[in-house]
Design brief:
Length: 470
């Protein structure tokens, strides 16, 4: 078990038909860190939706030939995926395209529903037939059901939000509209911007808007529905304020790119602050501070600045391999740790090191990184973690579905230090989490067990696979 990104969503609207697939491609490329198992793009051309999706990285799936095969259009949506619910199969790759009696719809989703199992049971008992094992198809069914009885797609999305619970940032494409919606808690990020030629862009992170030359306008508010049409933008706020805001704090610690800004807070600044707090709460007598690439680097720099210990580059990342945590299967992860990182002996040999990383889940990866540095000649290794200990599962999109194998559940920091081979270990204090973003409006359930929604009865990642095999 390890931490995985959830997913990334992207949408674009143009008043006139044009080449949109390439814009979506570059947007998804900039969101690749959020999911590396599969990706897809759907384009609407005069009401006809054409989609292509497959397992693999954006650059591998969307070859020049594939991109050129997608039509011109005025609306397009895209998705990069890590399977927090549902297996890594092509059928689970998004966007999901739905045909119904009032037209067509394509939907892409970031997050996990906390009541997905209950909703799916109800739908199956009413005759619904599912083709995937992801939460997104459940959302698509409910929106479609509401669309049949309501006059517009945005009314259907609003009605669906009365039923679905948990984390969802959505981009939805109808034959004439692009719709973006964020759950009332705002667990997952969603924002929009504009290109110089007038196109509107919706994305999980602001870095994706910048990647295609767009200007960030603002974050979509928790509970807000934005509708983009030829007549302009309509904001619907009937679900805003119906639940307390709870942005996932791990977006700032690990998931998001450091050049993104989420709900008005710079991810880079949040990570610097995490390192500063670590230096204050868990000081170490050392010669150099180094970070584990990539999400540990900013926190290491913050630790260095606050402690006065010089910052150095002690680990080099192979840029041509995906993030270790994305890889399904422990044996695959173990192999990738060995080829993903290498130690700079001239930096660490004979030195007392503060090693900063974003998390420790089961300890396997941390132990291998410590060994790399020991083999390179490090004299002491003081491990510092820019998040609190993981003690509880997450039901909102982070791939921790049980307490099983969470090292902090059964071991103290001192015991964990021995297990991973470090001389000492310090975690970010839970009480300091709000300081990263300057707000108490955050979800820290994976560290505290205090959930903003009801806890689902079935929490396993493969819950739908099990049902299909019975």
């Amino acid at each position: 078990m390890s931490i995985h990104e959830e997913c990334g969503v992207f949408g674009i609207y143009s008043d006139v038909p044009c080449e949109l697939a390439h814009d979506v491609y570059y947007g998804l490329y900039s969101l690749q860190h959020r999911g590396q198992e599969g990706c897809g793009i759907a384009v609407c051309d005069d009401g006809v939706i054409t989609a292509y999706k497959d397992t693999g990285l954006v650059g591998d799936v969307f070859t020049p030939q594939v991109l050129s095969s997608l039509p011109r259009g005025n609306i397009a949506v895209g998705h990069v995926r890590y399977s927090t619910t549902g297996g890594n199969e092509r059928k689970n790759v998004q966007p999901i395209v739905v045909n119904h009696r009032k037209g067509r719809m394509a939907i892409a989703h970031n997050g996990n529903l906390s009541n997905a199992d209950t909703l799916r049971d109800e739908l199956e008992l009413s005759g619904a037939i599912f083709h995937t094992t992801s939460d997104t198809e459940t959302i698509a069914y409910i929106i479609t059901r509401e669309r049949i009885r309501l006059p517009s797609i945005e009314d259907a999305v609003s009605a669906a939000m009365d039923t679905i619970e948990g984390a969802y940032s959505l981009v939805i494409m109808s034959p004439t509209k692009l719709i973006a919606a964020r759950d009332p808690h705002g667990f997952r990020p969603l924002c929009y911007g504009r290109l110089s030629d007038g196109k509107y862009v919706v994305a999980s992170e602001s870095c994706a808007i910048a990647a295609i030359g767009g200007e960030f306008i603002r974050d979509i508010a928790p509970g807000e529905i934005l509708v983009f049409t030829g007549g302009g933008i309509v904001s619907r706020t009937e679900h805003c304020g119906t639940a307390p805001k709870r942005i996932c704090i791990f977006e700032y610690i690990y998931f998001a790119r450091p050049d993104s800004c989420i709900d008005g807070v710079s991810v880079h600044s949040a990570r610097l602050r995490a390192g500063e707090i670590l230096a204050e709460s868990c000081p170490a007598d050392a010669d150099i501070v180094i970070g584990v690439p990539d999400s540990g680097l900013d926190a290491a720099l913050g630790f260095s600045r606050r402690s006065g210990i010089p910052y150095g580059i002690g680990l080099i990342k192979n840029k041509y391999i995906g993030r270790t945590f994305i890889s399904p299967g422990q044996s695959t992860r173990a192999n990738k740790v060995m080829i993903k990182l290498s130690a700079l002996s001239e930096t660490v040999r004979g030195k007392r090191i503060v090693l900063v990383d974003d998390s420790i889940v089961r300890g396997t990866t941390s132990r291998r990184i410590v060994k790399l540095l020991r083999d390179a000649g490090a004299r002491e290794i003081h491990f510092r973690v820019s998040s609190p200990p993981f003690t509880d599962p997450c039901f909102y999109g982070t791939d921790i579905d049980s307490k099983e194998n969470l090292i902090a559940v059964s071991h103290t920091a001192e015991e964990t230090a021995k297990i991973i081979g470090a001389d000492s270990l310090g975690y970010l204090p839970i009480a300091a989490l709000h300081e990263l973003i300057g707000s108490e409006c955050l979800c820290d359930a994976c560290f505290t067990g205090q959930y903003p929604t009801a806890v689902p009865l079935n929490t396993r990642k493969d819950k739908f696979d099990r049902k299909l095999s019975e």
